[in-house]
Recover the amino acids of this structure.
């Protein structure tokens, strides 16, 4: 797969009135990469996505999406993007298949030899798990089904870049699992570059090739879930018992520590457990550190 750069952001700043909400955001994503943007409420995730998709004008910095500055993106450029923001509330009387076929028509002029647009409505409905509801009116869908429709609307034009803002809110566990498979397929089979925001750390760890942690308008860490955990959370927790007495110790060198326990206590060592630092520990550590700086 080519490592074509699809998202390039350097020194992005955003100011609302007198308040700076993005100070200096730099990020990259290449073709077929899934990047998760994590951060507490108000960190600036939605603002970042809205700037990348051309919905909001930035205050400063360089931004390119598919080689184009979103502030000057034309319809042809826009047709190559997919956006899933909030729940689709218009067209409540439309039926699922009817709406997707209608919205898909917009993308037909932008079909290319490599990417056939739009996505066939029935195939798309199947891909998002709405086949049983294809003939239903939108206002009669459940919250989770409506969210699946939001996802279908976001990808009906077979986007090369997909922005997903908290895509799985309201999904039941099975729907979440199916959605994760869909995202992985879009990235792996179609080379779609995906930038998603989420508050679900398991989701980020599972889906993303790279995680960016945004705190108070700055990217404070970036890497795979494993990289971040190793770099930042650091300490594992080791628990054990000797002659019925329980012990617990935090250490960055759990393997060497456990080896030491075996050589010291031999057969009297019991109840050994090693709890690895998790992405959640990392995330909380980073967000706390950033609050202190603020
Ligand atoms: N149109 C606006 N005018 C003024 N301030 C805004 C506007 N939109 C967002 N903000 C502020 O910018 C900051 C970042 O908001 P943003 O919605 O980007 O955060 P977020 O990381 O997506 O948060 P959440 O996790 O709660 O969705 C917040 O402090 C918010 O109050």
């Amino acid at each position: 797969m080519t490592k074509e750069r699809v998202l390039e952001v350097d020194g992005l700043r955003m100011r609302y009135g007198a308040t700076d909400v993005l100070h200096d955001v730099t990020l990259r994503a290449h073709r077929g990469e899934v990047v998760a943007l994590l951060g507490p409420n108000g960190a600036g995730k939605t603002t970042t996505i809205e700037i990348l998709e051309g919905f909001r004008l930035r205050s400063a910095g360089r931004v390119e999406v598919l080689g184009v500055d979103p502030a000057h993106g034309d319809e042809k450029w826009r047709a190559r993007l997919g956006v899933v923001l909030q729940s689709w509330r218009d067209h409540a009387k439309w039926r699922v298949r009817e709406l997707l076929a209608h919205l898909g028509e917009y993308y037909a002029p932008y079909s290319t030899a490599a990417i056939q647009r739009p996505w066939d409505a029935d195939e798309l409905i199947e891909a998002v798990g709405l086949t049983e509801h294809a003939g239903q009116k939108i206002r009669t869908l459940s919250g989770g089904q409506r969210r699946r429709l939001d996802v279908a609307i976001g990808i009906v034009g077979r986007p090369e870049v997909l922005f997903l803002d908290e895509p799985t809110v309201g999904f039941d566990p099975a729907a979440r699992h199916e959605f994760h498979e869909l995202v992985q397929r879009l990235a792996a089979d179609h080379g779609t570059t995906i930038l998603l925001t989420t508050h679900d750390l398991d989701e980020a760890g599972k889906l993303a090739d790279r995680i960016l942690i945004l705190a108070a308008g700055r990217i404070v860490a970036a890497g795979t879930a494993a990289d971040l955990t190793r770099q930042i959370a650091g300490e594992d927790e080791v628990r054990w018992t000797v002659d019925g007495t329980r012990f617990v110790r935090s250490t960055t060198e759990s393997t060497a520590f456990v080896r030491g326990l075996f050589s010291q206590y031999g057969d009297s060592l019991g109840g050994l457990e090693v709890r690895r630092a998790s992405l959640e520990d990392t995330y909380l550590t980073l967000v706390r550190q950033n609050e202190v700086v603020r």
About this structure: The chain has two domains: 5-228, 235-276.
